[in-house]
Amino acid sequence: MATLAQYDLGEHVECVAFIEDEAFFAVADGKVHFPALNKGVEAHESLLCATPERGGKAMLTGGEDGRVLRVTTEGWKQLAEVPGKWIDVIASGPNGAVAVAAGRSVFLIVDGQPRQFDHARAVEGLAFMPKGLRLACARYNGVTLHWGATQSPPHELQWEGVHIGVLPSPDGRYIITAMAENALHGWRLDARKAQDSHMRMSGYPAKPKSLSWSAKGKWLASSGAQAAICWPFTAREGPQGKAPRELGTRKDSMVVEVCCHPVADVVAIGYADGMVIVVRIDNGVENLLRSSGQAPVSALAWDDKGNRLAFGTEAGEAGVVTL
Amino acid sequence: MSDTIPVTVLTGYLGAGKTTLLNRILTGDHGKKFAVIVNEFGEIGIDNDLIVESDEEIYEMNNGCVCCTVRGDLVRVVQGLLKRKGRFDGILVETTGLADPAPVAQTFFMDEDVRAKARLDAVVAMVDCRHFGQTLKRAPEAEDQIAFADVVLLNKTDLVDKDALEDVRATVRHLNPHAVIHTAERAGIDLDEVLDRGAFDLDRILEDDPHFLHDQAHDHHHDHDHECGPDCDHDHHHHGAKLDAATHDTTVASISLRGGAMNPDLFFPWINKLTQIDGPDILRLKGIVAFADDEERYVLQGVHMIVEGDHQRPWRDGEARETRLVFIGRGLDAEKIERTFRACEVEPAKAA
């Protein structure tokens, strides 16, 4: 039987993560809370983005103040500052590398040294590839891949439209973007010909803003519909020509967050009315964790072993469910 | 809807006084908090964390349809600002002098995430009275800005004489007969006239007697340029494609329609088809619709191909249940629009 610890954090929960076994909640008012320790860190005046550090030792945050911070239960340390600009997106890479986007500029910070990559248009999504120091930047009409360790020219992946988020597959073979046109787009990086590389996953009634790969990369779960849409990635060509699995279908609410379990083929689903469930991907069996709340779920995260699920909502409701 | 934040879009050609007005709003003693989204900090002299600098990002959605352009940066910034509830009473968006106002306005109709939290309150266009004539000759954007506006602020009136001001006013009136026009020196205006107008001033705009337009045209001796062709039977007001040569050869015209109760089964397909086909030429449309057997007024507004409407309030006792629509655009076929509009009526309008 699941047990639930609940917290009221006051404002929009931007990101949750388990860091050294402690649940971290980054909130839009600039605070990072560790409610089980009954404390928090005041990081920014207003926080815009946050992500757990790769390796799980800290949370990385960006704010309206243009500062990029590394937050632990002990406090914050400033990694970089872009004066006068908002830090729109943040991503964590290998060996402490951090990337942030501020409008059209991307800053890759390695060993404390920022390297700037300017784009013609704003960068709305950032993600490091699973291996090496390679950074994917979602932008208008596609994705730009930068090589962080060398001066090699960037690799451009073109697809017309508005790409608002990016997530590579765990094996690095695919790059998936969320599009404002209520679709996902994908590129198969090992395709022999560029024209064979595209994957188009459409039919969403809303923007599929939340994406999560299942533990072994067999499934890509996505929000943006009245069910979690899970695309199969077992075939070499990805999900092309295959129907997705629809999990946790509801008539009266939309799926707004998805987060796959770190070990099993299970996905946690957060809805616009605050409901949280977990579903087995293979047989669709559902387990209700939270029936509803005041606001849409805005963040979900599992701990390393998959025993606990943390959630937060747009109204600052938050909690940790122990399964 | 009621807990959405009002957004005021401020347009105007270079030098019209947008920055002056913004500075007035930011320093004004009105007890309200505004977030201001600007393209460049420029001359906004106030060190204020409510000002956000944002690069204009014009995104063509859906394979490049012009009618589906949005300001991608606004989607991001507005969502960022509104994650924190109760932080602002309103948002002001300043556009660059050469900006096409359509993508800004369309952002607030097209993006579901933005619509959930913000609503377009009014598009305010500022005009430098002294240079307006030249500007219109040089920059088609300036004409669009006027045509698009809900409120036009004729600024720098102290730099022109009375006749020149009236010429400017007449030109603006011609481009956009239904905008609310104010005058100011150094952007000095009661901010209530500009901010939080609500419902696009639909009532004030549309409850004006349409004949007012005509009378005014006479007042300002432009009637000789009002081309009353066979399509003009004076039930509507098709302001032709020409104004007198002393002012400007405008390409924007407006069509005002007035009718009785509408059959919704005919009206919605009509407005949808019209905006799908003529959308690129329609800059703005707005109106109040009376549907047969419907106890509530239906308000409608649109930008290019996007139309949206909703029930507004019950009809009041004694209020004429009539339909009024205004189209502002380029090269619109007034005869066709009126004829097809009439076909949606269930009964003729009650005599005024």
Properties at a glance:
heterodimer; A: 323 residues; mainly beta; Methylamine Dehydrogenase, Chain H; six-stranded antiparallel sheet; four-stranded antiparallel sheet; B: 352 residues; alpha/beta; Rossmann fold; Hypothetical Protein Yjia, Chain: A,domain 2; 2 domains; seven-stranded parallel sheet; five-stranded antiparallel sheet; 11 helices; 30% helix
Description:
The complex is a heterodimer of chains A (323) and B (352). The model of chain A has no long low-confidence stretch (mean pLDDT 95). Chain A has a domain at 210-323: Methylamine Dehydrogenase, Chain H. With 323 residues, chain A is an all-beta fold. Chain A contains no helices and 30 strands. Chain B is an alpha/beta fold. Chain B has two domains: 5-197, P-loop containing nucleotide triphosphate hydrolases (Rossmann fold), CATH 3.40.50; 204-223 and 231-342, Hypothetical Protein Yjia, Chain: A,domain 2 (2-Layer Sandwich). In chain B, 30% of the residues lie in helices and 25% in strands. Chain B has eleven helices and 14 strands. Chain B has helices spanning 18-27, 72-82, 101-110, 112-117, 132-138, 140-148, 162-175, 202-206, 211-219, 264-278, 334-342, and strands at 5-12, 34-38, 51-53, 58-60, 69-71, 90-94, 118-128, 151-155, 180-183, 252-259, 282-289, 296-303, 306-314, 323-330. The model of chain B is unreliable at 208-247 (pLDDT under 50). Chains A and B meet through strand 16 of A and helix 2 of B.
How would you summarize the topology of this molecule?
The complex is a heterodimer of chains A (323) and B (352).
Chain A: E1 3-8, E2 13-19, E3 22-27, E4 31-34, E5 39-42, E6 47-52, E7 59-63, E8 67-72, E9 75-81, E10 89-92, E11 98-102, E12 105-110, E13 113-118, E14 123-128, E15 134-147, E16 155-168, E17 174-179, E18 183-188, E19 198-202, E20 211-213, E21 219-222, E22 228-232, E23 245-247, E24 255-260, E25 266-271, E26 276-280, E27 286-290, E28 297-302, E29 308-313, E30 317-322
Antiparallel strand pairs in A: 1-30, 2-3, 3-4, 4-5, 6-7, 7-8, 8-9, 10-11, 11-12, 12-13, 14-15, 15-16, 16-17, 17-18, 18-19, 20-21, 21-22, 22-23, 24-25, 25-26, 26-27, 28-29, 29-30
Chain B: E1 5-12, H1 18-27, E2 34-38, E3 51-53, E4 58-60, E5 69-71, H2 72-82, E6 90-94, H3 101-110, H4 112-117, E7 118-128, H5 132-138, H6 140-148, E8 151-155, H7 162-175, E9 180-183, H8 202-206, H9 211-219, E10 252-259, H10 264-278, E11 282-289, E12 296-303, E13 306-314, E14 323-330, H11 334-342
Parallel strand pairs in B: 1-6, 1-7, 2-3, 2-6, 7-8, 8-9
Antiparallel strand pairs in B: 4-5, 10-14, 11-12, 11-14, 12-13
Helix pairs in contact in B: 5-6
